[in-house]
Amino acid sequence: MKIRHERPMSELAFQVRAPLGLELTTGEVLTIQNWSLDGFEFPGHCHVHPKEATLSIPFQGVDIRFPVTLEQGDRDGFLSFKNLTGRQRETLAVFYRSLLAGKMAATDEIITSLDTPVDLVPMGETQAERAAGQDSATPRTLRAAGVVALYLLLAGLVFWTLGAGIYSRLATVDIQNARIEAALASHVALQDAFVETILVQPGDTVDRGDILVRMSNPDDVSALDDVRARINLLADRLKKARGQENALQDRLSAARVKLETQLTQAPVEQVPGIIAQLDAFDGQYLKRYKDLFDAHRAVVALIDALEDDIRLLKRERGRLKDAANARHIVATAPGIVTELPIFERQFLVKGTPALTIEVHSPRTARGWVDPTLATALFVGMPIKAEINTPLGRRTLSGSILALHAEIDPDFSPEFGMMVTVEFSDLTPAESRAMLAHEMPVKVRATRAWVKDVFARFAIGSTHVEGQT
What we know:
By secondary structure, the protein is α+β, with helices and mostly antiparallel strands. It has helices spanning 86-101, 107-114, 127-136, 140-171, 218-265, 271-282, 290-326, 428-434, 448-467, and strands at residues 16-24, 29-35, 39-41, 52-59, 62-72, 78-82, 172-181, 184-188, 193-198, 205-206, 211-216, 329-330, 335-339, 347-348, 353-359, 364-369, 382-389, 392-407, 415-423, 442-446.
């Protein structure tokens, strides 16, 4: 409420001579001699007049004090009261009227002035206000039309809201708590091992069978190094044994050449004896070469034994290599690396998650429905999904891919139906770019009768057009 004060007696604007006290903000106290309800003559000469002070009115040995705000009046040395409250102005007016009447202010008048709640406000409507109200008034016909239009709009909104809700309940099935799911393949450490080398980074594309992380175990490395050292040692011994066998073979060849030379140069009567020596030499039982034959057989046996040992060690080396390679983390499917929480030289216990791959397949949505609606759904049932994109809301078409009786712990502890839907409008690359993993999405399945109604309507329209 806007409150304003109007002086009831405008003819009482002249000044009276009666002392009032004026205490400045500096603490200085001045005595005012000439004053009225508009203001007072400032005592003394001062170039800068106060803006605020405390006014004291003497009454029967006590002072009635209240703060006042001052402003420069219409003449030099005159200060006007500014923004006096109702109580302040009424109290000052009581003394003012008493001085003019030549009598002392009564106590009841002072008490009444101090109890004044608000300023006096004229309650009547002025001629100017009445004319302004009539000018701004809208014609009754337009006001009636506006009210009717407003009621029609409200009725339309109510019927639209109720009708849309009823149609939605009858024509569609809401798949609740639906969110986007990516086909993720989690790869874990197959055995206890250290991370030796990480060969991929998040965002890399991999194929099935690619080695993603090389793992190593000190025991495997030590065993493999031991086998390799033994193979190298036996290989050196085999090389020396073969050298010895070659030297002995050269000596045996030289001995046989010598016998053959004797055979060609011997008299006829010695030929049978030399031929018998050649046969004994070839049979390795000629006595004078017995040590050479034994040494050669020993070296050959040593070579065979070394070759067998090396063959067994190489087989063990291959087994150890396979065991070491089995520790490596290999891609189980083609896809894109999404998570890589490990680092090199880290020790991983068997079963520790190492990285995650999103398989190259379209992203789907998965939601929950109440078991009472399970009979209303079937695989291949059409669905509509709404998502928000930087370009605005977009509606996607698709169908139900799978139905499973499960519990959705994130939504309800009750046993219900988990529904998986796929989007026919998007390719795998588009679904990965547009649909973020775990992104909420609004999915509704369209009941079969709605499709039949629209199909019959389309057939009926075509038939009518054909007759026309």
